[in-house]
Structure formats: structure tokens, C-alpha cells
Amino acid sequence: MDNHQETYSLEENFARLEETMGQLEREDLPLEEAFRAYSEGMTILKQCNEQIDRVEKQVLKLNESGELEVFDNGSIDV
Q1: What are the φ and ψ backbone dihedral angles of 68, each rounded to 5 degrees?
Q2: I want to staple 41 with a disulfide (CB 3.0 to 4.6 A). Which of 11, 13, 20, 49 is the partner?
Q3: What range does the domain containing 49 cover?
Q4: Other CB atoms closer than 10 Å to residue 16's CB: what's the count?
Q5: Residue 23 CB neighbour total at 10 angstroms
Q6: Residue spans of alpha helices (H) in 1-78
């Protein structure tokens, strides 16, 4: 396995994760393949979490004077 990591969109990573979960649900999956699929799934899950964290940091909100400000990870009054 090389150190080059492909970049996937969040949607693509969710699809990859769903596919990996489908592999793990197979009853006839050999143990070695199950370990590989589990490891791959955990890697994809980590990538999803990192992508979601990046998006959360980019979320903007309007303040009371109508100006955009960066979302501070606190609650937003709706």
C-alpha cells in the first residue's frame, strides 16, 4: 500500500463506507477480508469526520446587523 491517498468528496466517502459495510454484513466473508474491510471502513470514517469538521468550520451565519460572521460552534438562535 502506498502513501498516496486519493481524495473523495463527502458523498463519495459515504458511498464507499456503505459499500464496505455491505461487505462486512456478508456471512461468507473470510476473516482476513473482514479485517481488511473493517480497517478500510475505519479509514473512510476518519476521512468523513475530517471532512465534516472542515465544513463545520466554514459555516457562516448572519449576525443581528446582517453581516456574515464565522460560526463559532456554539448554538445558533433560530
Answers
A1: -80, 140
A2: 20
A3: 10-70
A4: 17
A5: 15
A6: 10-25, 31-58
